[in-house]
Amino acid sequence: MVDRFFDWVDAQFESHGLLPSSPLTTALAYVRERRAALEVYLADPEVPIDTNHLERALRVVPMGRRNWLFCWTEVGAKYVGIAQSLIATCRLHDIDPYAYLVDVLQRVGQHPAADVAQLTPRLWKQHFAANPLRSDLHPRSK
After folding, report:
1. Are residues 70 and 115 part of one domain?
2. CA–CA separation, 29 vs 61, rounded Å?
3. Domain range for residue 58?
4. Higher pLDDT, 16 or 37
5. What percentage of the chain reaches a pLDDT higher than 70?
6. Which residue from 106, 1, 97 is spatially nearest to 43, judged by alpha carbons?
7. What is the pLDDT averaged over residues 88-100?
8. Whole-model pTM above 0.85?
9. How many angstroms separate the Cα of 7 from the Cα of each of 1, 45, 138?
C-alpha cells in the first residue's frame, strides 16, 4: 500500500501536466524528498506524526539564549547545542541529566569504542542506570 502511494506520487510528479509552481507539484516534491522518513512513520505505529514532544523538550534552549549568545565561536555554539540535545534526550527518557553526564564522563575513557552507542541516553538507561558511577562530590547516603 505504501509503495503504491509513492509510485503514484512519482507518476504524478513526472507527468507533464503540472506546472512547477503548482501547489500539488510542491506537495509532491515535499513527499519525494522525505520518503524515507514518511516510510518509517507509515510502517511503525509508535512513531508520532509530529515533533511537538521534541519541541517542548527543547523549549528550555530559547529561555537561556541570552546566556549562550556569546559562545565566542561556532565550535562553542556547536558544543552548547550537543549538551542541550543530550540533556533534552535524558529528560525524554526520564533520566537525571546530572547522573547521566557524571556516569558517562567517567565511563567514556575505559568503554570499548565499538560499544559507544551504549552511552547514548536510551541505551545507557538499559545498561548502566541501575548502578551509575558517582562523583566524589556526590553525597553519600548513610
Report:
1. yes
2. 32
3. 53-127
4. 37
5. 85
6. 1
7. 91
8. no
9. 10, 22, 58
